[in-house]
Amino acid sequence: MLFPSIDKLVEQVESKYTLVTVASKRARQLREQNNLQLDKPKARKFVGQSLEELITGKIVYDNPEVRKA
Questions:
Q1: Collapsing DSSP states into helix, strand and coil, what is residue 57?
Q2: Largest Cα–Cα distance in the chain?
């Protein structure tokens, strides 16, 4: 079984496409800045680490379009 679960991750954002965008941007930040917010990540790769940060609430996705409504 994959960790974190895709179902749990989609609850954090509104779609799978947004999830991919958020995870890839955060993975790029991790690669460039090396500022991981987890103590002991299960994943070795940056994308997995970014998904772990998202599921644990260390990073939060904020959609400005939803905020306007």
A1: coil
A2: 38
Give me the helix-helix angle, 46-56 and 16-33, nearest 10°.
Answer: 120
Q: Spell out the residues 6+ positions from residue 10 whose beta carbon is closer than 8 angstroms to its own.
A: 16, 19
Radius of gyration of the chain (CA): 12
Structure tokens at 14: 């509104």
Name the residue among 16, 11, 17 with its Cα closest to residue 60. 11
Mean pLDDT of all residues in 34-38: 83
Interior CA angle at 45 toward 39 and 51, to 5°? Answer: 65
Res 68: pLDDT:
53
The pLDDT of residue 66 is 60
